[in-house]
Amino acid sequence: MTDHEITETLDAKGLSCPMPVVKTKQTIDTLAAGETLEVLATDAGSLSDLAGWADTTEGVELLDQVDEGDVYRHVVRKTA
């Protein structure tokens, strides 16, 4: 995983689709532009779900995704 300065971490472990995306949106809305959110999830679908959400959502950028076996780490930056 690339080193990114993490502003906040969201623990979405144990949540299944669509909740990791819903919780990510709720949390990213509380951050200021330029801040970075790390999302920890156990739902394998979160890899495609969060990537798709970031691609279609203005003001966010998906910086990284890592499959660590039992936990998926996502790093999202609020850009606006």
From TrEMBL:
Pfam families: TusA. The keyword Transferase applies. One of its GO terms (molecular function) is transferase activity. Keywords: Transferase. Gene3D superfamilies: TusA-like domain. InterPro entries: TusA-like (IPR001455), TusA-like_sf (IPR036868). Residues 10-34 form the UPF0033 domain. It comes from the Archaea. PANTHER family: SULFUR CARRIER PROTEIN YEDF-RELATED. Belongs to the sulfur carrier protein TusA family. This is Sulfurtransferase TusA family protein. It comes from Halobellus ruber. The lineage of its organism: Archaea, Methanobacteriati, Methanobacteriota, Stenosarchaea group, Halobacteria.
